[in-house]
Amino acid sequence: MDFVASKELSGLIVIPVFEKKEAEALKKAEELTGAKTEFKAKKNEFLLLRGKKSVLLYGLGEKIELKNIRLMAASVVSTCEELKEKNATLVSMPEDCLKAFVEACLIYEYSFDKYKKRDEEKIAIEKIFLPNIGKEVSEAIIVAKAQNYTRSLANEPSSIATPEYVQHQAALLAKENDLKIKVLESSELRKLGLNGIAEVGSGSDHPPRLVILEYNPSGKKTVCLVGKGITFDTGGLQIKPGRYMHGMKYDKTGACVVLGTIKAVSELKLDVHVVALMALAENGVSDRAYKPGDIIKIGEKTIEILHTDAEGRLVLADALTYSKNYKPDEVIDLATLTGAILVCLGSEAAGVFSNDSKLEKDLIQAGEETGERLWPFPMWDEYSEKMKGTISDLKNISGWSPDDPDSILAACFLKEFVPEKTKWAHLDIAGVDNTDGKGFYKEGNTGFGVRLLTEYLKKQV
């Protein structure tokens, strides 16, 4: 799909309509189709007219809301697909809305269908003609494509997307975008006193590793992005019930998102130093797997393993600890960390936990602008107390009480490994990482976080 600045009316003609301004739009539609009709421009109401030309009237309500612009984009792509129309023309659009429209067109067009028999009748949309194309639109194309890159990697099944495979994809990106790459395998991590990744991955035949990409070391500000990359999560020896195991290929989404974000940032050539740390492991079951009751050490802290399915916080702890080597101004981690966040927020937002109010506020604002919303949670000292151990410094879960707020407690655990005096935020994306088809996403991984983080990083330069 390409975007072209042109006033040519080609393919499906799309007319955005605001309430109380229907008359002008209906007049234009009648000129194009030869058909008279009535239409009320309530939010996300639409009408397809067929005549001399095909015209889509799309209602946006009384005022501009970016979420409705994105839904309109999905409707445009969907209508083109149904009509087998290769082109579409957007007749008008406020310039500050074109970015949201373009991103949503590319995101909705994406589908993970590489393992399906090719549909010979499916028509690919070739061009969408826009009133104009400025810098914002050009950047939106880069970011949306980076998000779809993320989705493709996250959607790959665990039989393909092993830690080795994700490392290979990172290496390809490093070569293409002139990024530095560093790989620390289990033996090297253990020598550094970082045992989380090695222990979690010990039950799998696919060796775990920490993969690090670095962009623009001379940038004005250093931001480390840390991603949980569990390529498949069985739950370990405390194995998940079958119905909870399906979809665990998505437990690598955090790592995929930081990879997609550094792709976007490097292609936008932002003047910021970004380090992407991907903690990669498969939480498997074997006689080598780590066990409940084990005590492991990460940095200067010992941790008693109470549950092998609380593995994400262990691999993140390694990466957070290692991030101090880059002397970051800020560290932001993303993880499909807890099912509890889904109970709290559903699939409408991710949870944000931070030790810095400005960082938290700025991330929330970036989320509002991109539609990747965040909701803040507390990390009071009383919560941190629950994570302290009796025979170790920490426990990887607080205990077995159903009343414990696990999303908050997991964040409190991670806070223990953040480099001293460093601004930090943790995004729990377990409720928003995949969808069965909603809004401007088709079924599969969403890549949630790429647009949010890129928008945030754009404002740091």
Task: Give me the secondary-structure topology.
Layout: E1 2-5, E2 12-17, H1 22-33, E3 46-50, E4 54-59, H2 66-83, E5 87-90, H3 98-109, E6 127-130, H4 135-155, H5 163-177, E7 180-185, H6 186-191, H7 196-200, E8 209-215, E9 222-233, H8 242-245, H9 253-268, E10 273-283, E11 295-298, E12 301-304, H10 312-322, E13 330-335, H11 340-345, E14 350-354, H12 357-370, E15 374-376, H13 381-385, E16 394-395, H14 406-415, E17 423-428, E18 434-435, E19 444-445, H15 450-458
Parallel strand pairs: 1-6, 2-4, 2-5, 5-6, 9-10, 9-13, 12-16, 13-17, 14-15
Antiparallel strand pairs: 3-4, 7-8, 8-10, 11-12, 14-17, 18-19
Helix pairs in contact: 2-3, 3-4, 4-9, 5-9, 9-15, 10-14, 12-15
How would you describe this structure in keywords?
Aminopeptidase; 15 helices; 461 residues; 2 domains; eight-stranded mixed β-sheet; alpha/beta; Leucine Aminopeptidase, subunit E, domain 1; six-stranded mixed β-sheet; 19 strands
Describe the structure.
- This protein has helices at residues 22-33, 66-83, 98-109, 135-155, 163-177, 186-191, 196-200, 242-245, 253-268, 312-322, 340-345, 357-370, 381-385, 406-415, 450-458; strands spanning 2-5, 12-17, 46-50, 54-59, 87-90, 127-130, 180-185, 209-215, 222-233, 273-283, 295-298, 301-304, 330-335, 350-354, 374-376, 394-395, 423-428, 434-435, 444-445.
- The chain is an alpha/beta fold.
- It has two domains: 2-133, Leucine Aminopeptidase, subunit E, domain 1 (3-Layer(aba) Sandwich), CATH 3.40.220; 140-458, Zn peptidases (Aminopeptidase, 3-Layer(aba) Sandwich).
- The strands form four sheets. It has an eight-stranded mixed β-sheet, sandwiched between helices.
- α2 (66-83) crosses α3 (98-109).
- It is elongated, with a radius of gyration of 24 Å.
- The model has no long low-confidence stretch (mean pLDDT 96).
